Queue: 2 jobs
Job 1
Amino acid sequence: MAAVLRAPALLEVVCNALSDSGWNYFVHSPGKPFGISLERSGRERNNLRIFIWNCTHGGGAARALNEYRIQFTGVVPRFYLGETTLLLGWHAGYGVFAAWNLGMHQGQDSGSPSAQIREDILRGAYENGFAVGERANGEIVAAFRPELLAEYAANVVAIHGGRMEDLNVLNELPLLGVAEKGDYAPRPRVASTIFRAYREADFSRRVLAAYSSRCAMCGIQLKLIEAAHIVPVAAPFSTDMTCNGVALCALHHKAYDTNLVSIAEDYGVQISETRVAELRRANLAGGINSFANGLQQFISLPADRRDYPSVDNITISRQIRGWQR
Ligand SMILES: [Zn+2]
């Protein structure tokens, strides 16, 4: 039986979900409903207000076996002006969020106020990342893995205001060619943005798992690790296969993307003398010795040979990136 979480633990679930999907967050209101500001890459921002309860069966012989629910205790859900307001449940057993259309539940404070979701939708999210369904009253409900929380929030209006015939594609994310080049974009737009986030999260999860969340160039973990593409995403030959990825800490990811370091075909880690000379001329080579000393001679490799960086990808990548020794 999964634990029923108290508010501080639910806040931790939400924060972990946001940080695992690559967002910086700031909790400005830790009491219910949670107030959280999101920011990514210094450009995208979202102010969230989150009503969240444990999603449980709740027992009782009169209740359908396949129906789960949240019960609004303590606060009455309502929209917060100027904030993206979410009405969520956390199902600890499946490790997924459930989500309702706040517009259909705001101000709901009857005797036993609650919102329901069918188990097959929760299970669909557990298996496929994202799931949507329609309740008998016409309400669109959704469920999703934690790493899709920020993307759900960005599209909350389009999802709950959408039509099932358009949204059904969200029930099939793993079938949409995850390992393929990313120019495939399902319609409508909400589906393509959720699909892109799903692919990024899927790539990141596989790459981090392959390298045990350790930087392949310096060995640190510390949750400072990112999944870097070897052939860059923007390039025509890029894929989301694990063999086109390598786990790097934020410092070495940046160094890799700016051609200060590279991975050679023999998996050696190289520093660009050309780039260092350029930086010296610009008086920007401070710390180069300790930087060089922090690098392994060869990258650490995954346990599974199939996950090793593909040598072809390395060659293509060095050409595309314009690598100079
Ligand atoms: Zn590193």
Note: The mean pLDDT is 92.
Job 2
Amino acid sequence: MKRIIIVPFTSHGVLEYLDALKESLAESLRRAGVEAEVVVWSEVLKPPIKCFNWERKQYRAQCLIEYLRSTLQLSGVERSTPVLGLGFLDGYEEGLNFVFGEAMPNLSAAIVFSKRLRQEFYGSPPDFNLYFERLVKEAVHELGHVLGLDHCRSPGCVMNFSNSIVEVDAKTRYFCNECSRRLKG
Ligand SMILES: [Zn+2]
Ligand SMILES: [Zn+2]
């Protein structure tokens, strides 16, 4: 059985959701026919300042992913074990204003930035259920990339590319049949 590790990068906005998140991740994979044991890393990693862009006030996704991989490797986690970082942070990548998440399949690692998944970010009242639903979708999506999937246009599939919160809300937390088939193969 595949072991997947979720690693918090902040306490705020993350820790209270982790138990439910790991169940939801395992459930999405199970529905795709993949049995996985999802575990939560016991410490909160501090995002390194070298990954912070002071002009943009955002963290660079690839920098955090590389830091995540090397930190876990130092703690004895095999390089092939999928790891997913999660932080209540704002992230970007070169050429993009922001990203909800990013994956580096060659490192078997990904990150989800959850600051823009909150209703408050858009000036709306808090909605914890909606925030959690978005967290799950983005976590499953980035994990899908780590497990070898590309973007998918099948309506509702979690592997749809989301460039806005409207697009996140439009998809489900599940893999379509084609993506499920690829995951198993
Ligand atoms: Zn993607
Ligand atoms: Zn799909």
Note: Helices lie at 18-31, 61-74, 128-146, 165-170, 177-184.
